[in-house]
Amino acid sequence: MRGKVLKYNKKNLNTDLIIPARHLVSSDPEHLAAHCFEDLDPDFNQKKKEFGISIIVANRNFGSGSSREQAPLAIKAAGIKCVIALSFARIFFRNAINIGLPIVEFKEIDDINTQDELEIDFEKGIIANTTTNKQFKIKKMPDFLQEIISADGLVNYARSKILKN
User: Fold this and answer.
1) Would you kindly state where each structural domain of the chain is located, as residue ranges?
2) N or C: which terminal CB in the chain sees fewer CB atoms within 10 Å?
3) CATH topology assigned to domain 2-164
4) What are φ and ψ of residue 46, in 5° steps?
C-alpha cells in the first residue's frame, strides 16, 4: 500500500471528532465521508483532494469515546486506505477490522509528517517513508486479521469461508 499522509497529533481523538453525532441520521457511506473529521479539521476533504491524502497518522488512543461503528466507516468511505496511530481504542480497533480498514499501531509517529509518502508492506511488517528515506519495522498483524482486511471486512470474509464449505 502506498499513500500520502495527513497527521493529527491530538491524543484521544474520539469518534465524535471522526464523525459528529449530528451526522449519524444516515448510515450511507458517502454521507458519512462528506462529514468525516469536520469538527476536528473543517478542511479535511479539501486537503485530502488537494494533496492526495490516503493515510491518517495519529497519536495515542485513536477512536476513543463511543463505540459507533460509523467512525471507521466514515474514514474508509472518505478514501483513507490506512490509519496509523500510537494506539487505538479497543472497540475502534475491532470495528475497523470488521469493515476492512487497515490499521497499524506504530510508536515512531514523530518520524512521519503531513504530506510524507509512505509504503506499507503488511506481510513483511515494514513502513517505508519514501519522503525521508527512512524504513521502520512494525508488528505484523496476525494472518487471520490480514485475511479479514483483504476480504474487505468480516462479513465478506465469513461469506467466503461459507462458500468454500
Assistant:
1) 2-164
2) C
3) Aconitase; domain 4 (3.20.19)
4) -65, -45
